[in-house]
Structures are given as C-alpha cells and as structure tokens.
Write a structure and sequence with these properties.
Length: about 725
C-alpha cells in the first residue's frame, strides 16, 4: 500500500506524517503490507528493529504494543503497552490499548479509567484503537454482570461503527432479546435536560454535552460539583446515576438512584417507582435464604424397601440413565424417584387444584458400598414442606429404613425463590387448557395469598400487606410490585396486577394517556400500557418496534393485534411477521401453533415462501413431542422448501438442536416416531428471578448482581420455540 504523506500516522498523534515521521513512510508501508498478509511474527521482528533505531518514537511503540497484544503472552503484552503509555502519556491510542489490555485481564475499573482518559485526550479524530476498546470494555462489563455499563459502551461503539461492522449492534440486539436479562436492564440510559428554573444552566448543559459525547467521567465530576449546591435536584441525581452505571459503578449508582427516587416520588411517583425498582435490582440487598439439603437414612432391608417404593403411588419412578449419576468415588444409585405429596390421579381431564400432585423432592436409593452402608438420599429445599416430606418418606419406607436422618447441606436458595416456584406431576393426558387453568389459579394463589404475606428486607422486614399500611414504605412496596410485574411479563404470566395493586392500596397502572405522549421516550416498563387503538400509525409502528426489540411480550401482543386490524397499514406491514411475534409471546402452546399457521398463510398470500414459519412450527412440534405432525412437516419442507438457503439453514439448526442431525450434517438415528413418551419429570411452575439468586442448581454460586440468570432448578420451563430471526 502507498502511504499519503499528508495522512495521519497510525500511532494516534494529531500531527501528519509529512511533519511527524517523514523518514518512516517506507517502514510504515512495509508494516501495513505484512499486517494485511497476516505476517505478524515477521512484522514484530521488523518493528523491534525499528525500536532499536527509534526507541522513543510513537510509531514503532504503537506497532509493538498492537502486535504484542495479538501475539505474545500476557506479560509481554503488558510490558509493550505500558512502555508506549509511559513514553507518550498524552497519546489517546496508548491509553486505549491499555484499556483493551486491562479489559482482557478482567480489571474493570482500570479499563474504564484508561478508556475515559483516552477519550478526554482525543482532540479531533477518534483513533481506531478507541473504537476497539469500547467493544473490549463492553464485553468485560457484560461478563461481570454490569449490563447497563455494557449497554452504554456498545451503544457508543455502535454510533461510531463503520458500515461494514455490525458487531456492536449485534451485541445490543442480544442484550435486548435475552429472556434471561431483567427488563429493567434493557432500558437505555438517558440524561435529563436542565430544569427551566435551575440557576447554573450553562454549567449543567456543558456537563450534559460532555456526557453525551462519552466523556462520562468528566461529566460525572461536573454533575457531582453541581450536586454540592443542589443535593436533592432530581435531574442532577438522575444524570449522576446514569453516568455511574455507564462507568460500571453499579453499587454506587443504585444508591444514587434510590436518593433520586425518594426525592422524585412526590412529583412523579411512577418514575420514582421505576428508579427504585432498578436500584433494588442492582443493590447488594440480601434476602432470607434457606438450605438445600440431602437427607440420608440407612436402609435395613433393600428388597423390601424397593418393593414399598414400587407400589406406593406417592413415589414416581424416574426412568433415567442412573449410570450418569455415579462419580469416581461413588457408584450410581440403584433407583431414582420423585416423592409426591399425594398419588397422581389417573386422568388429568377433570384435574383440580385440590387433587393435583406436588413434587416434594428427589429420592435416590444407594446400595451398600465398601465404606458406606446402603441408604436412601432425599434432596429438597428446607422450606415449609420439608418436614412433611420427611414424614411422608418415613411412612412409605416403614421399618425397611432406619428413621435417623443425617442432613448434608448442598447449597442455598432464596426463601422467596422457593415460595414463588412449584413443581407438579400431572397425568400424562392432562389437556393443555387444564394445565393453563391450573397454572393461572396457582399463580394467583401464590401472589395474592403467599407473596403478600412474605416478609421482605426491602420493606424493613415487613410483609407487603403490612407495608401497605405504612406510608414510609409506599415507594419500596410499589417497586417490589413493579419488579414482580416485569418478571411476569417476561415469563408470560396470566395475572392481573391491577388486582394486586388494589389489594395493597397502590396507584393503578392503567392505559397511558395520549396527551403529550412521546412513544420513543416512554420507559420500556410502560410500553405494554400504550393505548394501541388510539395511536397514530407512526406511533403504533414505533411502539411495536421498541417492544419487539426488547422482547416485551405483553406490549408486543397489545400492539401487534392492533397492527393486524389497522386498515391504513394493511399494505405497509408484514402480517406473517406479526403472527410470528404473537406466536413467540403466546403463553398457550395451542395458540402459538395457531399463530404460526396464520404466519404461513400470510406468507403465501404475500407471494413469499412459508418455509421459515414451517421450520418454526417444526421446532414447536418437536418440543411438544407431536411426532406425527412433525413427520408431515418434514416431508413438506424437504420436498418443497429445502432448496431455499435460509430455510435449509434454519431447518439444519432445529434438527441439530433436537439431536436428529450431527454438526457435520449426518443423521443421528433417523426421525423419531411413535406416540409421545410419558413425561418422567415434574411439571414446573413459578419462575421468579431475584437479584443474586443461584443461576443453576442450588449448589452453585450466585451470579454477580445484575448478571443474566440461567434457568434454575424448579423454575418455569422456557419455551423451546424457534422463530425466524432468533439465530
């Protein structure tokens, strides 16, 4: 390549090559050629020779740092980057490379500080190393659970991205679409405008301008100085919290946000509630925890015990591969069961809340070992039903076991998590409408009878019902209800939170007014309350787009249904996509399938292939174990649509996910057939995410505050529905 003498050198200085390093033009050209040819080792040798001639020059120091970051070990990379920064402390590229290095080492505060220094030193043009550093720091923040800070970095990087780089936007889309990230953490951080009556308007607007350009550290310092003269000004507090979140200072930001919420609650109780809920989600607030224990009892007689377990209908045999439960130091169990509180009814057609069987825990039967006697092991959370479960187990086993119980703590879970989750064992023929009805009834009972009487530390140890009579706790109580409502929206609960608010004497959260309504600035926690039928076409489309991007199920359902009947938009919208989104948000499987059928019909009517929507239906048929329908779909897909690249790729992904095809494209045993196998596990319910709750089985450690939780044991099962656009 040919270097323009009037271009800027690659090292980050603002002096042009002709005036800064004219004697290095040939060397720079050679280095760039080697980099383009990916000859990094040879290039590093050449750069080292340059450094011998010019040990203090920023050009070879920059290339030395870049190449060592790409090639060398951690020590050499750190040495090279530090040398560049030491020799040129005013060069933004040096600090940007240091930020990237610190981010790779997991040093969050140091990485953010270096990146902010690089930005503050940038005078005219943004060096490419700063752009890369935004991505590196964003990834690091995401890995440490600081989602809002990661969002800020990816958003700024996306605004600076060249046309051929969509990685920052992809990262934002993944954050927005993830069902594991609480809705509160999907809201873009915004900065409040200067209040009309604020006397230091010029200083406020200067801080606002710097902050909007990504100079978050500088802006934070300016707003904190303004706060010293106006400690409870809501606009200042809101901006300070937003900047603290952007800088990864989640704990401090949560406290600032709480102060803002308390100051703002009289002016705008709803905004204060949203702020308090976010502060609660990210604060280090410990709630009551309970042990998950393994209760062991010695076995006197193995065969009589196995017979008792076999004939008692409160013991549900688990037909699983027991060899997978063995360890290097312990052989696998001889049998595995679910312990139920009552026998399972023969048919689920007339099932009611009174006769449904609940799972009390898991039971394993171990034979005699060299250093251990034969034993049964019962594992469960030590909640309100634990003693009942042990009594039931002793009753079933009788004199075949020694009733002496030895408990071993396996881990801990939040007591609230145990309260909000439940597991049922329903008859295999239970109709979907019965399952849905029971789930709705149970959830209503849990929320309106149990949750309202559960003490919470955020409510000073009082229950929600007790807090509803304390005016000082009105704000944190409203935040708790909003948090629960957002969980319900993500989990597709069928529950009317207006009933809960009424019971707790809280303000209603009805449909938003259209007066002065700015759809683009409505907080995402309120989008489901948009008056869909009253919105203009433009506002309806914008509200729907914001809801889809962030996976707001209730809002999508509300707005998509209006789009489908809006006559003025009939020729402007993709109706098949609308039906697909309705399928994604449906809480009922039959309804989701009906929407997918409509998506296919609409695609055909619009002259497009329905293949992608048929693949989505196939995914759901597999999920529901409806193999006859799946076989018919497969035949149609293979005969009519398998030649379409997008459909073929999507079909391959679905088949691979369900284990019907190997990663190299080979069939893994053929198409499964026959009737759906009997369900061997419990019917899960509940599904409440709480900050710091274990992300997996109870024995695992809790994730960082604000980290996306994985679906834990006992949580409501997520839908396996694949839809076009999810890859």
């Amino acid at each position: 390549m040919t270097i323009d003498a009037y271009a800027y050198p690659p090292c980050g200085t603002n002096k042009k090559i002709k005036f800064y390093c004219p004697d290095m033009v040939a060397d720079i050209e050679k280095i760039e050629r080697m980099l383009q040819g990916e000859q990094r080792v040879a290039c590093l040798d050449f750069v080292r020779k340059m450094l011998e001639k010019h040990p203090d020059h920023s050009v070879p120091l920059f290339y030395n740092a870049i190449l060592n970051l790409q090639l060398s070990d951690e020590h050499k990379a750190e040495e090279a980057v530090n040398l560049f920064r030491e020799k040129h402390p005013d060069n933004p590229a040096a600090h940007a490379l240091k930020a990237t290095l610190e981010a790779s080492l997991g040093k969050g505060d140091e990485a953010i500080d270096e990146l902010q220094t690089a930005l503050e030193q940038t005078e005219e043009r943004l060096h490419p190393s700063l752009y890369d550093a935004f991505g590196a720091v964003g990834q690091m923040l995401l890995m440490t659970g600081k989602v809002l800070g990661a969002r800020s970095h990816f958003t700024l990087q996306s605004n600076l991205a060249p046309d051929d780089d969509n990685m920052p936007m992809q990262m934002l889309m993944r954050l927005n679409n993830s069902p594991e990230i609480p809705i509160f953490l999907k809201q873009d951080l915004s900065l409040a405008e200067c209040p009309a009556d604020f006397p230091r308007k010029e200083e406020f607007n200067t801080a606002l301008q710097d902050s909007a350009q990504g100079l978050w550290r500088k802006g934070l310092k300016q707003f904190e100085e303004l706060r010293s003269g106006a400690p409870r000004n809501p606009a200042i507090l809101e901006n300070i919290a937003a900047l603290q979140f952007s800088l990864g200072q989640d704990d401090i930001a949560a406290k600032t946000l709480h102060t803002y919420a308390v100051a703002e609650q009289r002016n705008d109780f709803e905004a204060a509630t949203e702020a308090e809920a976010l502060a609660k989600a990210l604060s280090d607030q410990d709630e009551e925890q309970i042990d998950v224990v393994n209760a062991s009892m010695p076995i006197h007689e193995m065969e009589p015990l196995l017979e008792k377990l076999r004939v008692d209908q409160r013991c549900e045999h688990l037909p699983i591969d027991l060899s997978q439960l063995g360890t290097e130091g312990s052989p696998p169990p001889r049998a595995a069961y679910l312990l139920l509180d009552k026998p399972r009814t023969e048919s689920g057609a007339e099932l009611t809340a009174e006769n449904v069987s609940s799972v009390l825990g898991e039971l394993l039967v171990f034979g005699k070992e060299t250093d251990r006697s034969a034993r049964i092991e019962f594992t469960s959370a030590k909640g309100p039903l634990f003693d009942e479960a042990i009594s039931t187990l002793k009753e079933i086993c009788g004199d075949a076991i020694d009733p002496t119980v030895s408990e071993d703590v396996q881990g801990r879970i939040f007591a609230l998590q145990d309260l909000m989750n439940w597991q049922w064992r329903l008859p295999d023929d239970t109709p979907n409408e019965v399952r849905n009805r029971l789930m709705t009834e149970k959830r209503r009972e849990v929320i309106l009878e149990k949750w309202v009487n559960f003490p919470l530390l955020t409510l000073s140890g009082k229950t929600p019902l007790e807090a509803s009579k304390d005016t000082e706790l009105r704000l944190p109580l409203a935040a708790e209800v909003l948090t629960l409502e957002m969980v319900g929206q993500q989990e597709k609960w069928k529950f009317d939170f207006a009933e809960l608010r009424e019971k707790l004497s809280l303000p209603t959260a009805g449909t938003l007014s259209t007066e002065n309504l700015d759809v683009l600035n409505v907080p995402i926690t309120r989008l489901h309350r948009l008056p869909a039928a009253e919105l203009s076409d433009e506002d309806l489309i914008q509200g729907y787009g914001r809801s889809v991007i962030r996976g707001l199920n209730k809002a999508v359902e509300n707005l998509a249904n209006e789009l489908l009947v809006r006559q003025s938009l009939m020729d402007q919208i993709d109706r098949s996509q609308l039906y697909g989104e309705l399928a994604r948000t449906a809480s009922d499987g039959d309804q989701a399938l009906a929407y997918l059928k409509k998506a296919q019909e609409e695609a055909v009517q619009q002259g497009r292939s329905p293949g992608m929507w048929m693949v989505a239906e196939l995914s759901m048929r597999f999920e529901r174990r409806e193999m006859q329908e799946a076989q018919l779909l497969m035949q149609t897909l293979m005969s009519k649509y398998a030649q379409e690249p997008q459909t073929a790729q999507a079909l391959f992904g679905v088949l691979q996910r369900f284990g019907l095809i190997t990663p190299d494209g080979q069939m893994a045993g053929g198409m499964p057939g026959g009737p759906p196998p009997a369900q061997s596990g419990p019917e899960p319910g509940g599904g409440l995410w709480t900050p710091g709750a274990p992300a997996g089985p109870p024995s695992q450690a809790a994730p960082p505050q604000g980290a996306p939780p994985a679906a834990g044991e006992g949580e409501e099962k997520k839908s396996g529905l694949w839809l076009p656009g999810m890859d």
